[in-house]
Write a structure and sequence with these properties.
The chain is of the alpha+beta class. It has one domain: Alpha-Beta Complex (Sufe protein. Chain: A). Helices cover about 40% and strands about 20% of the residues. The chain contains five helices and four strands, in the order ααβββαααβ. It has helices spanning about 1-10, 10-20, 65-80, 85-100, 120-135, and strands spanning about 30-35, 40-50, 55-65, 145. A four-stranded mixed sheet has the order 3-2-1-4, covered by helices on one side. Helix 4 runs antiparallel to helix 5. The radius of gyration is 14 Å and the shape is globular. About 40% of the residues are buried.
């Protein structure tokens, strides 16, 4: 069990949770989307400044667990300079990684989240800000949720 916890809270995750990068409201954002996980209370807004098809700047604001905060921090650093298509491709890789544990070198520091797959309840924490960023990059200003709406 201890090894699993060590995998989950690797040093990079702890570092980004304690000192998140790009943790700020971006007043001049061109795209904004909110992500919420009503089961655990994670709630983040992702801000993007787009120049045509390229993410020139990215930031986030909100609150949540260490996994969700670290994921949002690493996300904002990873997508700067990327195109919308690159953001979607990286989203797919990260989503696959946190659900299967399979990572490749192309995800860089994001590979720290590969251990999350061992904790299914935390997968939604790790991918929440990615859903918001994907929506923002697509120009969809909506709140995305980890839970399906009740019918």
């Amino acid at each position: 069990m201890f090894d699993d916890l060590t995998d989950l809270y690797q040093q990079v995750i702890l570092e980004h949770a304690k000192s998140p990068r790009n943790f700020r409201v971006m007043e001049d954002a061109t795209c904004v989307a909110n992500g919420t996980n009503p089961l655990c209370g994670d709630n983040y807004t992702v801000y993007l400044k787009m120049d045509g098809d390229v993410v020139k700047d990215a930031s986030f604001q909100g609150s949540g667990c260490a996994i969700s905060k670290a994921s949002a921090s690493l996300l904002t650093a990873a997508i700067k300079g990327k195109t919308r298509a690159d953001v979607e491709l990286l989203f797919d890789k990260v989503q696959n990684m946190v659900t299967t544990g399979e990572a490749d070198e192309s995800v860089g520091k994001l590979a720290a989240f590969a251990g999350v797959h061992k904790f299914p309840a935390r997968v939604k924490c790790a991918i929440l800000s990615w859903h918001a960023a994907k929506s923002a990059a697509q120009g969809i200003a909506e709140t995305v949720s980890t839970e399906e709406p009740a019918e």
